[in-house]
Amino acid sequence: MKLGDICKIKYGKDHKKLNDGSIPVYGSGGVMRHVDKALWDKPSVLIPRKGTLGNLFFADEPFWTVDTLFWTDIDVAQVVPKYLFYQLKTKDLASLNVGTAVPSLTAEVLNEVQIDLPPFEEQEQVVEVLNTLDAKIATSTKLNGYLEELADGMFRRHFGELTDNATLADFANVTMGQSPAGSSYNEAGIGTIFYQGRAEFGWRYPTQRLSTTEPKRMAKAGDVLMSVRAPVGDLNLAYEDCCIGRGLAAIHCDYPSYGLYLMRSLHKKLDAYNGEGTVFGSINGKALNGLPIALPNNAAIRAFEKEAAPIDTQIRNNEVESRALVALRGTLLPRLMAGEIDVSKVNLTQLNSHLA
Q: In terms of CATH, what superfamily is 3-117?
């Protein structure tokens, strides 16, 4: 069966004239803003038209999409919408690229994609298994957001009224990134994890994209990673020891939790280094080291560290578990789609209890 037989491929539309609201607007990178009008209000798979062609989204609430994304009007009599999403996740859509400078897909090409549909009941069972994993990942993500907000609030309560009395160099060691030779890059995991810049950032930790066999400047696990090219000031934490390129700086200190929330509190100062119009924003090592900060006494820093470190440890543990579940889902997905696992034999109650 072809994709065009079970859904209609639709084009996104411009969102700029819409008012702000509660409806998410999806672009090729995810949710861009929220507006007051929906383009579609039924479950849909959102497929990139331009850009990163494998970056699919599933929307089960009203949404709007921009013109770099297709959306789908799905025939729910033939296919469970979420099953179609999982099925398309197993397809190498990037290989269908018809663009030159920018990777692109067309509706005509997508309509010809072959889709394997088992009986409806089996589709529902597969979705239930994968949704169990997705729900656990989503719960951990939401909990981590709450925990981070809690620690942010603690930092503001303790130190929000302090005035600047030092510079960043008085508290932390700053390492400005240096990119290795391009010939040393690889996606096979050979050598040292390498992060070039902001593009590799996730919610709190980067996602692995490249490795290098000729690492230059290094960050240690737990260091604050900061983008030093537009947008200046975006933050992540080094998930492990890694090489950093010229788009990043690593900030290392003896009190890592305090260091993280201190850097988060400096976003307005750092935003001043972002350019306007055609000016490309950046910050150099001298300016970053000289950034004015409010530095309390060591006793106050140690007291905050004692409160915040357990919160950050829990966030890290949740992230470790989520990454393991994402890897498990990636392993199961093609096998479930190929019918190699008999989902009728999966005890979902037992699965849920293991993931609780």
A: DNA methylase specificity domains (3.90.220.20)
